[in-house]
Amino acid sequence: MADTKENILMAALHLFARDGYEAVSVSTIAGELGITKGALYKHYKNKRDIFDSIVERMYQIDARRSQEYEVPKKKYEFESKTYENISVNNIKNFTVSQFTFWSEDDFASNFRKMLTLEQYRNAEMAELYSNCITAGPVAYMEDIFRKMIKKGIFREADPKQLAIEFYAPLYLLVNISDWSNDKAKSIELLNNHIDRFIQYNAAETYERIKL
Known about the structure:
This protein is mostly helical. The protein has helices spanning 2-19, 26-33, 37-41, 47-68, 88-104, 106-118, 123-133, 135-150, 159-177, 183-201, 204-207. Helix 5 (88-104) runs parallel beside helix 9, helix 5 packs antiparallel against helix 10 and helix 6 (106-118) crosses helix 7 (123-133). The longest helix is centred in the first third of the chain and has 22 residues, at 47-68.
């Protein structure tokens, strides 16, 4: 029973990523699995129910990954204490792992592709794309850098500008990875970018500490 529900979820996500959410019907999903619509409805009420389950799964995965890499799960206004102990190494390790996650993880990469396809024809998808892929991560990093500046880890600067400069290469490399097989080179470039970013922006007092 659980396997069937999971198979429906993943089949739907793959179809949404390939053809777009609007173009895929319940009949298409059922046909992809060789089951009837009636069998599908035993697990999900409708296509929207499947989509909501996909989004909820994504948020759950994000929360687990944040905990694993010891970075904040939520924005500063909701989780200010977590921002106190975040380190440069936390950010570096989490950022590099995000590249692998968004480019190689089956669920995450297809979720990203689904939102990329639908963002121009569905306002809700556009908002999700912004929150998960573009403006959301930038705002998240802005909060982190603001706290790092306040703690004297980074020198004085506009935290939003820092967030854009830091995140843009990750975003670009993830998109390049859709058409490139050389992910090792992309990870090398990302690591170099992060090291240079830290070195350039570290406060003078912090530069004495080995990063």
